[in-house]
Queue: 3 jobs
Job 1
Amino acid sequence: MPVCFVPSAPIVRAIAFADRALSRTIDHSLFPKVSGSVVQVSPLIERIPWIHGYDRLVTIPDRLFAGFTEYHAPLYHYYFYLRDQQPLQLGASYRYFVAHFNDQREIQEIIPAGDVNLPLN
């Protein structure tokens, strides 16, 4: 599941986390009892690999990342996603956060990255 967030500063060192216990904050009758845990869903990201091709396009050859373009006249918007690498449950809801680390690898900022609701079908 892609995670979308808007950082307040460039993200260099970051890890994505997911709150797997959203029934506490979002009414979800399918999962009345949840673990209450926040799970790390990405490795520590210190650099984003990229390749600059002959056609002037930049490719990120890592399946941890995804990109998507939308057109909202008169501008194109490019979205950059970090994928959740953990198994997900259909019918569940997840709340994502990105932890941004400083040069000493201490948490500097927690960035809310939104909620995701997975339908049953």
Job 2
Amino acid sequence: MKLAIVYVSGPYTKGGKATASEMRENYEIATNHSLALWQIGFGVMNPMGNTHWDLIYKEAGIPHGVSYSQLILFDLRVISRLADCVFMIPNWESSKGAKIEHNLAELEQKPIFYSMAEAQAFIKEWERSTS
């Protein structure tokens, strides 16, 4: 059976303008969704987990020198080359980056989920078709 890889998309940094508190809340929301996706059978790519150091540096008031462009370009490559589907966490529409990620997933005709129920239905079918 092939593991379905889902990319988790949603608000995190507000284009670098989010407070540390807002980033922490967004990180926790994404992490909770990621765990739920792992639990129903996906392999999960959560970009907020991949760049959690951004929050740690922000809380410490230390600039890290990594640009938003670098991060979004990496994320788009992951969606294009690795992800089988994309999960949009609540309030994704408020994020410039999530909108870009959503547009790429649509352009590449990748399944996009807006709820756990949709993701669960997909993974059941995926498991049937790849076993």
Job 3
Amino acid sequence: MKFKLKTTYKPTGDQPKASKQFFIMLVGFSQSGKTTLAKKIEKKFPAIFTRIDSDSIHDFLDRTYKIFQDDKTIKGKSFDLRQKATSAVKKVLIKELIVSHHSVILDSCNLAKTARLEILKSIKKIKKDIVTIIIFVKTPETILYKNLRQADKRKKTKGEKPAWVDLYEKVQKDKLDKPHKNEADYLLIYNYPKEKSVLEQLRTIIFKK
């Protein structure tokens, strides 16, 4: 079984060529709209970015190795192991993709400042001229809870235990360190679900001469 990532830049149509290499880090809670935004960025700027998606790494580990297979809740026996393994895989992917001149979208929560800075500093050591961009996904809590409950409902229909509300309330909610502009070259705010402003700001940054 293979784990697949989309390939990177291949100029298409009337889209101008990106002049630099980029690293976009999304910051926000699970089910806040990060993946939806990441996919819209991919669509807006076709073939420029390779997206690293934590959920797809989780799913790959769960499908492939019995050691990760549990009830997929925060109380599951493999919860901590899955988080650590996913983090390790992401670090390897980030390093190899950056060395290989890919521009990357890191589609994961990245809630803690210390973890964000560790990743961003390691990237700058590899490529000092890479442009780093943090996109902070701000979703009203009423909408976030709606998304979390819908995700739990989907789990129930598949015969699985609900986990998303618990993950937010008992693991993620108190871990958020709001990103500061000095953490990366650019800090953009995405007020879910209004992505137009963020996409236009990204376009200006990516194709800046």
